[in-house]
Write a structure and sequence with these properties.
2 domains; 2,3-Dihydroxybiphenyl 1,2-Dioxygenase, domain 1; alpha/beta; 23% helix; 5 helices; eight-stranded mixed beta sheet
């Protein structure tokens, strides 16, 4: 396996909402983060499943892509990241599939990346990246709350107009293992409890859209207050969260 689902990135101008939701309510622990050219990013990890990354502009040159995204869409899902062990081999596979990657940057030995445009990736940006050095480290943000009870990021449900094409993308190209399929749905998995469920839905304006993210507590259940807070914060962040009983 050469590609593994690593994280879902969410763009926002209000980091406090993201910290409160994904750490305070949903138990995410600080993983790492850093300033980059034009934006700041930080990642939270969970008991299982992919990480959540929050992206926010930092007012410096280089963040125009994120400014445009927030101006056009508001806060919301920005990209899915897949970690690869050999980006040159992955780029060859992508091109052989008939997709031309964009934003290819392999000059930095510590971080090589490329992107699939939403038009080629069923409505969402997909980032493939090879990390050659240690993850950038900085102290947790001062407004990051103490994490709530541990949870799993149990499932990303993504709706697509072309289910067969999406299965080829996430399965054949990005190494997801098909674990279940029914009429109009397909579920793929990667190591570490990372799962995407694809659901066919006609009439989506860009060919696909993230429907919801499902979290399940490792022990115990969510209270009504948890559900109310999660719903309000998720709405501000442009995502829908589903809080499963277990």
């Amino acid at each position: 396996m050469t590609a593994v689902l690593d994280h879902l990135a969410i763009g926002t101008s209000a980091l406090a909402d993201g910290w409160e939701l994904f750490a305070g309510v949903l138990g995410g622990r600080w993983a790492y983060g850093s300033d980059s050219a034009g934006f700041w990013w930080g990642q939270l990890e969970f008991a299982a499943g992919p990480k959540i990354e929050l992206l926010t502009p930092n007012g410096e040159p280089g963040g125009e892509f994120l400014d445009r995204f927030l101006a056009a869409h508001g806060a919301g899902p920005h990209h899915l990241n897949f970690a690869v062990c050999d980006i040159e081999a992955m780029l060859a596979r992508i091109r052989a599939s008939g997709i031309e990657p964009v934003g290819v940057n392999v000059a930095d030995p510590d971080w090589k990346e490329a992107f699939l445009h939403p038009c080629s990736a069923h409505g969402i940006v997909i980032q493939v990246a090879e990390q050659g050095g240690p993850a950038p480290m900085c102290a947790p943000p001062p407004d990051l709350p103490d994490p709530g009870p541990a949870t799993r990021l149990d499932l990303i449900e993504y709706h697509v107009g072309d289910l067969d094409g999406a299965v080829r993308l996430f399965g054949d190209l990005l190494d997801g293992r098909l674990t279940g399929a029914d009429q109009g749905t397909a579920e793929l998995a990667w190591p570490g409890g990372k799962r995407i469920r694809l659901v066919r839905e006609d009439g989506l304006p860009h060919g696909g859209a993230l429907h919801h993210i499902r979290f399940a507590r490792a022990t115990g259940t969510y209270t009504e207050r948890d559900r109310d807070r999660a719903g309000l914060l998720a709405k501000r962040l442009g995502v829908t969260v589903n809080l499963a009983a277990r």
